[in-house]
Specification:
22-stranded antiparallel barrel, mainly beta, about 60% strand
Length: about 775
């Protein structure tokens, strides 16, 4: 009986505690009455701004009331309210003592229909949006989070996983096409692209699992389109970020300056340094051979970038920008090897590249919202790597020139029927050499060169049957010719297509069905039959016999918004013929990895993503899981297995200035034709604080607080020989971050409308 009373009292205390938290979190919020012409503004869209960024958006209720959370209200600098075809604009909103927002004297007249429409649409957006063929993560809609790179943001993006090298995958497949503001970046690996984008500059991320025909057909798992912010309503603005840590440090700054009424100049500079330690163990077991090797080493990496863009200020008809980008990366690994025979060996591996790119975009908007886009770019990418041990040294280098011209035209035949047609031409030129040096003498040398030409055209259509039903249909043709003096010439040409159906059951529920055909072409790196060092323990040899892999993807989607919950469930089926995969074998005391074409790979699974807001957005939980059953076939061999990918992100807003963020990814091993390879597991916890009216953010971050590092294991078996490779990455670390945001308003040059200028001048006086 006593035990029952004790337990019963515990339950009471727990209920009282939950009741206290509930009352504290759901307390009365500050209320503002929105009126126009002495009438309440019912269900009007609004946006709350912190300088030039939208921090909260929504709609007034059925009585015209606007509620603002206490953690948000002190950050608000201005507000826009959209009433039919009018826009109401309030500045210095935080200083107002009135609980009534009367739009009668604050209406902005003469705004274009396009501006009104775009702003109204954006005001109604949520953090996650399901658009049928893609899911959109509106990063700027969330509470502020600062991180070393954009990898952490991608870790909480629906259906996306990030491995230990920073390479993204969608639903367990790493053949992802990366776009930055809708444009491809050729030559640089996806992990390098992601590292060099400051996380606080990301506006939104589009996860396009069923791409339309206007996109390149490359990327059988889908497309990640990372869209960055464009500052508005400021003449001189930017940010400075600094991070110091035990495993790496970074610095970046961005500056935007309005030159005149027509042009804005933006400059970005950044640097990233990293130095993790690595410990490796390798074993080869068979009836004839037993070999063990242990390696201890350190990686020292550095990366720098500079970007400059001159762009015209947005208007109704024309937009132009001209940009220059430069990247530099240098990675060095020093290792000591201990063999089972007690022999020792020292090695050094370095990789270096530079990237220069000039690009120009020009967009014209015609009447009826018809848009013509033109783009031209040229880039130069020199790459070199060196691997040396004892008195032997391998030097590899390649120079890549990439030119691209693209045009597309979007036009509307009827109000609900639109077409997008376009063409793209790309020319890549490769020239390089491989040199073997023994005892400071040139032992052997191989030169190679190649030219790759890609021509593509597409037509894409969208038809809106009614307010609930949308249908998309597109076809794309791509012709690629790869010519080299070292290997057999390659000629690939294929048609690719997509069919999409999206049905809005109601304003909060939607259903979609998509089918498409995509391709994974072998890169020049995979085709050249030369040895390259992937690491100090693994060699890679190209395979000139490779052919492209073709995928057929079918995906269903169901999404639902509840009051504080968003959930999307997506069953899928993917068939990949001639899938390009790595094949590992042992030769001359080294692991050799070479790309091959599997007969086919089949992925059947379901993806689930959910977002939960608790206690009036004080607690935000994002959780995603991919359950995939894989079947792989190659030359009579078969391997099957289940892969589960888990992603969790939790943010707790303690008050208006303090918040705690925890995220992690916990995955089961990858399935390969020869065996398994465990997936990357990562976790992070950070404490963040706002200063100087939210213009300064400081955070303390701990990587992998629950483990000293990640152990990457590979277990392969072929011809009754077991290959065992294990690498321990010491990735636990402590980091401190700081971001300072600056900007000065210049209403006379940034806001065209005279009424807005008068409002600003009157309030400033």
């Amino acid at each position: 009986m006593l035990k029952f009373l004790i337990n019963n009292n515990k339950i009471k205390y727990q209920l009282l505690l939950l009741l206290f938290i509930y009352q504290h979190s759901f307390s009365q919020l500050p209320k503002f009455e929105v009126k126009f012409e002495n009438q309440p503004c019912i269900k009007c869209n609004y946006e709350l701004y912190d300088r030039d960024s939208v921090i909260v958006s929504g709609r007034t209720d059925i009585e015209g009331n606007l509620f603002i959370d206490n953690s948000v209200i002190k950050r608000v600098k201005s507000i826009k309210i959209y009433i039919s075809d009018k826009t109401c604009f309030f500045t210095d909103f935080i200083d107002t003592n009135s609980k009534i927002l009367d739009c009668k004297n604050n209406i902005v007249e003469n705004m274009s229909t396009k501006e009104i429409e775009e702003l109204t649409i954006y005001a109604s957006k949520k953090v996650f949006e399901d658009e049928g063929d893609k899911i959109v993560y509106n990063v700027s809609k969330e509470k502020k989070n600062i991180n070393e790179s954009s990898s952490e943001i991608l870790r909480r993006t629906p259906f996306v996983s990030i491995d230990i090298n920073g390479t993204p995958s969608i639903k367990g497949n790493s053949n992802v096409l990366i776009l930055l503001n809708g444009k491809e970046i050729s030559g640089i690996q996806s992990s390098q692209i992601i590292k060099q984008i400051p996380s606080n500059e990301i506006l939104k991320i589009e996860v396009i699992t069923s791409p339309s025909s206007k996109y390149s057909a490359e990327g059988i798992s889908g497309i990640l389109n990372i869209i960055t912010k464009k500052n508005i309503l400021v003449k001189n603005s930017g940010n400075i970020g600094l991070g110091l840590g035990t495993s790496g440090s970074h610095f970046y700054t961005n500056h935007n300056y309005l030159l005149n009424n027509k042009y804005t100049l933006s400059n970005s500079i950044g640097a990233l340094l990293y130095y993790p330690s690595v410990k490796s163990n390798q074993k080869i077991n068979s009836s004839q051979l037993i070999l063990e090797r242990e390696t201890v080493g350190e990686n020292i990496g550095q990366m720098y970038y500079y970007s400059s863009t001159l762009s015209s200020n947005n208007n109704d008809s024309k937009y132009f920008d001209f940009s220059f980008d430069y990247y530099y990366s240098n990675t060095k690994n020093n290792s000591n090897h201990q063999f089972s025979s007690n022999t020792k060996q020292e090695s050094e591996f370095t990789n270096r590249y530079q990237y220069f790119k000039i690009k120009s975009d020009y967009k014209i908007t015609f009447p009826q919202k018809n848009i013509l886009n033109n783009s031209i770019s040229i880039s130069y990418l020199p790459i070199s790597n060196n691997f040396s041990y004892n008195s032997i040294s391998y030097n590899n280098s390649v120079n890549i020139i990439d030119t691209s011209v693209q045009t597309d035209y979007n036009f509307n035949i009827k109000k609900n029927f639109s077409f997008n047609i376009g063409a793209k031409s790309t020319l890549n030129i490769y020239a390089g050499e491989r040199e073997l040096i023994y005892n400071t003498s040139n032992f052997s040398q191989q030169r190679f060169d190649a030219t790759q030409y890609l021509l593509s055209s597409f037509i894409d259509s969208k038809y809106k049957l009614n307010n609930k039903t949308n249908i998309s249909l597109g076809v794309r043709y791509e012709f690629l010719n790869f010519v080299s003096s070292n290997i057999v010439n390659k000629l690939f040409h294929n048609f690719f297509y997509n069919i999409g159906y999206n049905y809005k059951i109601n304003s909060k529920t939607s259903f979609s069905a998509n089918f498409n055909r995509r391709i994974h072409r072998p890169s020049y790196y995979n085709l050249f039959p030369f040895e390259n060092n992937l690491s100090n323990n693994v060699l890679k040899v190209g395979n000139p016999a490779l052919i492209p892999g073709i995928s057929y993807n079918m995906e269903l989607g169901f999404s639902k918004y509840f009051e504080n919950i968003f959930i999307k469930i997506s069953p899928f089926y993917k068939l990949i013929n001639n899938k390009i995969s790595n094949f590992v074998y042992f030769y001359n005391n080294s692991f050799i990895s070479t790309p091959i074409n599997l007969d086919r790979e089949i992925n059947t699974g379901i993806s689930i993503w959910s977002t939960l807001n608790l206690f009036k957005q004080k607690v935000l939980i994002n959780y995603g899981v991919d359950y995939i059953y894989k079947e792989l076939y190659f030359s009579g061999q078969k391997n099957t297995g289940v892969q589960i990918l888990n992603s969790l992100n939790l943010t707790y807003n303690i008050n208006e200035n303090w918040r705690v963020n925890l995220f992690g990814s916990f995955n089961t091993p990858n399935i390969y034709i020869q065996g398994i390879e465990n997936s990357y597991t990562h976790s992070n916890i950070s404490l963040q604080k706002d200063f100087l009216k939210n213009n300064l953010i400081i955070a303390l971050s701990v990587d992998n607080p629950f483990s000293k590092g990640f152990t990457h294991r590979q277990n392969y078996n072929i011809n009754n020989i077991n290959f065992y490779n294990e690498q321990l990455f010491f990735n636990r670390g402590i980091r401190i971050f700081a971001i300072y945001k600056f900007g000065s308003k210049d209403s006379s040059k940034n806001i065209k409308n005279k009424n807005v200028e008068n409002i600003l001048n009157n309030e400033n006086n």
